[in-house]
């Protein structure tokens, strides 16, 4: 994979030299394989580019919200994944962020793709990704979508119930089915176990039903939930997957695929670290699935790849002073921003128990300045459009920028267009030091 990364970065630099010998790193636009981006030299970080872009946009009268996405960060994450989990091939979860530039970058790097709909399948297939590098990772599929997968040779797909088996038997008996089992999601930001997966004690009956329908089952999958915070969840799920494997083998199935799903951390400063997760996963894999066993191990990382690569820049549209009923307490300020719950922050709204947003101010200010409790709102007319309540910030003004890091996962892909507020534009950059 290092050769791939070097080729991409070197090709970008060569194309840059062909265009001009002396261009500011802020304006060096590159076009590679349909990706428009800015190649940053070692003198500029993605965060510096972000601040300069905000300043230049304001100067030109453009106050629209936007993103800066560092493809070099994604490349670095890929190198880390391959190093820390050498037995596991990543199949990127398209649902997490289906931006064309992200998918193309990952296709260059040679990842597989985990898709959940015909639209996602189509996006990936149109990029020339082989059907063998795609897993249809949705255990409950529309019949026409199953037929679409069959027509395009996408054979690997998950299931977790009898009704899905009947659909497969009628529409795509050649499919290579993967049994999705329940994993412990209690310590994850967003649980999937209430909807997807079969309990381990129900696996044998379901596999027997598959056998009676002449459906080929080749493996087992699980998902610990998005934003998993407990390494034990992976250890227990791998142990359960081993049990399901053995049940399948007992019934005569050639079990050869293990899909350990997603849930890997992608935010900066997240604990436990990815390295800690990898340590537990590797140990569990070695204990339960020997290297001598002919098992292909895949995963479905989404948040891991893209979260830290994207930073959102929001502009203050309106500033208000919050009036306290009793007239006491600290002075509180309220800011209306130009992106919110119905745009990039829907998942943040749903994540009631733990808000993990850590905004920072775009302009420089004296650290000795007083900080005020602040409420950040989105731009729509809905009262639910609250991004953060009671975050301490210096006093800001209309036109100032507020930046939100770790915004690559389940943000752009969940934009609703409510009140016809468009999704923010994304400026793609490639940081040289991260790409090599």
From TrEMBL:
PROSITE patterns: ODR_DC_2_1 (PS00878). GO terms for molecular function: ornithine decarboxylase activity. It comes from the Eukaryota. Residues 71-307 form the Orn/DAP/Arg decarboxylase 2 N-terminal domain. The active site is at 381 (proton donor). One of its GO terms (biological process) is putrescine biosynthetic process from arginine, via ornithine. Keywords: Lyase, Polyamine biosynthesis, Pyridoxal phosphate. Its cofactor is pyridoxal 5'-phosphate. Residues 70-408 form the Orn/DAP/Arg decarboxylase 2 C-terminal domain. The modification N6-(pyridoxal phosphate)lysine is found at residue 95. InterPro entries: Ala_racemase/Decarboxylase_C, De-COase2_C, De-COase2_N, De-COase2_pyr-phos_BS, Orn/DAP/Arg_de-COase, Orn_de-COase, PLP-binding_barrel. Belongs to the Orn/Lys/Arg decarboxylase class-II family. Catalyzes the first and rate-limiting step of polyamine biosynthesis that converts ornithine into putrescine, which is the precursor for the polyamines, spermidine and spermine. Polyamines are essential for cell proliferation and are implicated in cellular processes, ranging from DNA replication to apoptosis. PANTHER family: ARGININE/DIAMINOPIMELATE/ORNITHINE DECARBOXYLASE, ORNITHINE DECARBOXYLASE. This is Ornithine decarboxylase. It comes from Xenopus laevis (African clawed frog). The lineage of its organism: Eukaryota, Metazoa, Chordata, Craniata, Vertebrata.
């Amino acid at each position: 994979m290092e050769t791939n990364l070097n080729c991409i970065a070197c090709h970008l630099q060569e194309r840059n030299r062909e265009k001009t010998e002396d261009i500011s790193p802020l304006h060096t636009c590159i076009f590679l394989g349909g990706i428009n981006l800015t190649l940053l030299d070692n003198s500029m970080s993605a965060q510096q580019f972000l601040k300069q872009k905000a300043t230049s946009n304001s100067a030109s009268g453009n106050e629209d919200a936007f993103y800066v996405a560092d493809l070099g960060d994604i490349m670095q994450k890929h190198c880390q994944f391959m190093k820390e989990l050498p037995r596991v091939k990543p199949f990127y979860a398209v649902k997490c962020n289906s931006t064309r530039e992200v998918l193309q970058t990952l296709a260059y790097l040679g990842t597989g793709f985990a898709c959940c709909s015909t639209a996602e399948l189509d996006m990936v297939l149109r990029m020339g990704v082989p059907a063998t590098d795609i897993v249809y990772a949705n255990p409950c599929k529309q019949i026409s979508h199953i037929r679409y997968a069959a027509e395009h040779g996408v054979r690997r797909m998950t299931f977790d119930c009898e009704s899905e088996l009947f659909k497969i038997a009628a529409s795509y008996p050649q499919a290579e089915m993967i049994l999705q089992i329940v994993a412990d999601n209690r310590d994850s930001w967003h649980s999937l176990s209430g909807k997807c997966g079969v309990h381990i004690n129900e696996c044998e009956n379901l596999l027997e039903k598959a056998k009676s329908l002449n459906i080929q089952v080749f493996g087992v999958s699980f998902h610990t939930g998005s934003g998993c915070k407990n390494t034990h969840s992976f250890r227990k799920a791998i142990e359960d997957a081993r049990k399901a494997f053995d049940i399948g083998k007992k019934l005569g199935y050639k079990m050869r695929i293990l899909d350990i799903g997603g849930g890997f951390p992608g935010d900066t400063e997240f604990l436990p670290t990815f390295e800690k997760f990898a340590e537990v996963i590797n140990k569990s894999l070695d204990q339960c699935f020997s290297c001598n066993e002919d098992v292909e191990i895949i995963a479905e990382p989404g948040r891991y790849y893209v979260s830290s690569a994207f930073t959102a820049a929001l502009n203050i549209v309106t500033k208000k002073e919050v009036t306290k009923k009793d007239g006491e307490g600290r002075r509180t300020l309220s800011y209306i921003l130009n992106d919110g719950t119905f745009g990039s922050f829907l998942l943040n709204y749903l994540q009631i128990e733990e808000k993990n947003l850590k905004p920072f101010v775009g302009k420089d200010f004296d650290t000795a300045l007083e900080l005020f409790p602040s409420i950040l709102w989105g731009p729509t007319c809905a009262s639910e459009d609250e991004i953060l309540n009671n975050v301490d910030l210096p006093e800001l003004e209309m036109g100032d920028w507020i930046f939100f890091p770790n915004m690559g996962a389940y943000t752009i892909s969940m934009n609703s267009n409510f009140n016809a507020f468009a999704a923010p534009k994304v400026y793609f950059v490639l940081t040289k030091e991260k790409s090599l």
